[in-house]
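Minutes, project check-in
Item: structure for the 373-residue chain
Input as provided by the requester:
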Amino acid sequence: MPQALDICIRGSGIVGRTLALLLARERLRVGLVEQPLPAGAPPAADVRAYALNRASRDMLESVRCWPADEAAATPVQHMQVWGDRGSELHFDAGELGSPALSWIVDVPVLERQLADAVRYQPQIEVLDAPAPARLTVVCEGRASSTRAEFGVDFEVTPYPQHALATRIQCEKTHGQVARQWFAQDGILAFLPLGGAQGNSVAIVWSVSPEQALRLQQLEPAAFCRELEEASAHTLGALTLISERRTWPLQKAQARQWTGRTSGGAWVLAGDAAHNVHPLAGQGLNLGLADVAELTRVLHGREYWRGVDDAKLLRRYERARKAGMLALDAGMDGLQLLFAREGEAWSALRNWGLQGVERSGLLKNWLARRAMNF
């Protein structure tokens, strides 16, 4: 007779697999639900890359899933941010005494390593459908069907933007610099790929839905010309090397992150619990912070509490909601500030960027908050 599960994790992305590996180390019996592709459907090309901070790197190293090849986890030594009237903000890892500001990780490489680690962990049972367990953890992403099944209110505020993601090859090497341009018509980010000497970057371009559709449909050469113009020709001539994918942007948070059904207790984690604007590149870091907190709470529970104890799970919910407040408000405020049109708003945001650049202590505090040092 199969051993009963302690925890069933619904969702096998980076957040779900990392959580499964950490909980398996706690000697918990874990089920991980993987959704198979429809028969005959080829896997979609993945153009994503994530900026991961020190805490996320440490966690992935602890489960031996950090990419060994630097080309798959490029250290960011500098970050340059430009406003729409020439203001500039610069962060330097060396000045902060850090080996990197963040690491730009190739998503397909990381997902393969996590999948391999799960396959060889005897405490994890890979499932093709949910199974009964004392605790269900929902990591299915922002369109989670289980969250809806549990009747959780997901409070969504759409942004008037879609993100366009792709990859490009550049005439010049990126120099381990992450670059971001804030303009009234959108926010453009260049994330360095391929290691220290690489000359490819991942693009995330947040623009209006109409602009996103137009850019996606442009011929590659025409798309690259517009990209060169938007990036002030910083990396020279650009060549498209992947598909272009788009999705709508939103701010969202579940009203409750934990509860009970007739089948047992449940909690939400990752994008199933919260969504933020990608302008600071913190989405996956927040999801992995959920993983760290839930693992900490379960590891430190009193001996008489089970993994489905309501008070225990509310500790996780309170801690993570509190941790989200400042970042969520900051990202929302920045997006709204740069979406405003007019000379007065343009002057205000550029004065703000220049002020942070000159501030010293405030600038270092902001950088360390983002890096989680």
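Outcome recorded: The chain has a mean pLDDT of 86.
No further action items on this chain.
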